[in-house]
Amino acid sequence: MASMRESDTGLWLHNKLGATDELWAPPSIASLLTAAVIDNIRLCFHGLSSAVKLKLLLGTLHLPRRTVDEMKGALTEIIQLASLDSDPWVLMVADILKSFPDSGALNLDLEEQNPNVQDILGELREKVNECEASAMLPLECQYLNKNALTTLAGPLTPPVKHFQLKRKPKSATLRAELLQKSTETAQQLKRSAGVPFHAKGRGLLRKMDTTSKAATRGGGSGKARPSAADRVLPCGLGGSSALPRRDLAGPGRPGFSVRSSNGPPASLGAGAPLALSAWPGRGLVHRRGSERAVACCRGPAPRPRPPLQPGRNLSLTREQMFAAQEMFKTANKVTRPEKALILGFMAGSRENPCQEQGDVIQIKLSEHTEDLPKSDGQGSTTMLVDTVFEMNYATGQWTRFKKYKPMANVS
C-alpha cells in the first residue's frame, strides 16, 4: 500500500514538475505541497529525476513560514536526502537550503567549503564570459532602480550609435525662414525707395476694364463707350493710355483744351464729336449746374480700335510646374509681376507686353556671389553671379543662364 502511494506521488510530481521548458518552480506549487504530500515525497525522493528534485527543492522557498514550521522535520529529511544525491546541482541546492527549515535563511558561504560548488561556479563563469552580461540578467532588472541594477550587475556597456540625425530642430528652421523673409523685405523696400529704372520685363501696366457699367446721363446704367479722345490717343501696353494723366489733362498740350464756362463751348469742326474724360482710375464727369469739361480733338479722323481677343485658359504641365518651383526656390530678385509673366510664357502665352524691348526679354532671377579659381590656378576671385531667365516671343523658347561680373566692377 505504501509503495502504491509512493508511485502515485512520483507520477504526480513528474506530471506537475517534469516539463523541461520551464526550469524554475512556479509560485503555485506552494498550494500543492501539503503535509501529506511532503510525507509521501520523503519516501519516494530517491526515485525522482534530477529536474523534478531541483524544482521541488526550489518550490519550498514559496511556502509560508507557518507551513515551514509545521513541516520542519519532513523538509529537513528531504534536504538531507538531497545532500546525498549524485547530481551536482541537487547537491549544491541542498547545501544552500540546509539552514532554511530552522532559521528561514539561506546558506551562501559555500565557495570555500564545497569543491562541488567551486566546479559549478567555474563552469558558470566560463559560460557568462562567452555572452553579454545583460542578456543573462532576469527580466525583472528593467523594473529595478538604476543604482540597484548598477550595484548588482555592474556598469552596462552603452548602446552603439549607428547613425546620427542631421536635421535641425524646427525652431532653428523657423528662425532661418523669418530672417530670410525680413532680409528680402528690406531689400525690396530699398529698391523701391531708390531711383526708378526700367528693367527688362518690368513696369507692366494693367489692362483697362472695359466691361464695367457706367452711369448714364439719364440715371440709368449702360456699358461705357470709348470716347473720341480715347480712340485718337495712342494706346500703350494692355490697351491703357500711354500718356500720363497730367499730360492728358494739361492745359499746355496742343491737342486738347479744357474750359469751364457758362456759355456755349467752342465751335468744332463738322463731324468732330464731343467726349467726356474717361481715363482709368477716374469716375465719369457729371454735369454740375452749368459747368462741364469738354475735350476737343483736333487730330485726324478716328480709327476704330480692334476688338480685344478673349483670353485663353492657360495651364502648366506637371514638369513645367516642377521646373518653375525649382527655379523660384532660389530666386531673390524676381518680383511677383515678373513671376506671373514667366509662368504665362511657360504655359504658352505669346502676347509680348513689352514690344518696345523686342522679341527677347530677360528677367533677373537671383543674385549671389561665388569664389572661382583664377586662370593661373593660384588663389580665387569673388564674382557676382546673376541668374537670368530669357524669353523669346518669336520662337517660344526660354532658357536660363548665368552672368559673371567681378566684384570690383560692381558699384
TrEMBL record:
InterPro entries linked to this entry: HDAG_dom (IPR037517), NELF-A_domain (IPR052828), NELF-A_N (IPR056557)
How is this protein annotated for GO cellular component? Answer: NELF complex
Give yes or no: UniProt keyword Protein biosynthesis: yes
GO MF annotations in UniProt: translation elongation factor activity
Q: Where is the HDAg domain?
A: 89-265
Positions of region (Disordered): 187-264
Name of a matching Pfam family:
NELF-A_N
Task: Give the UniProt keywords, A-Z.
Answer: Elongation factor, Protein biosynthesis
Q: Which domain of life is it from?
A: Eukaryota
Enumerate the Gene Ontology biological process terms: negative regulation of transcription elongation by RNA polymerase II
List where this protein forms a coiled coil.
Answer: none
User: Under which name does UniProt file this protein?
Assistant: Negative elongation factor A
- Species of provenance: Bison bison bison
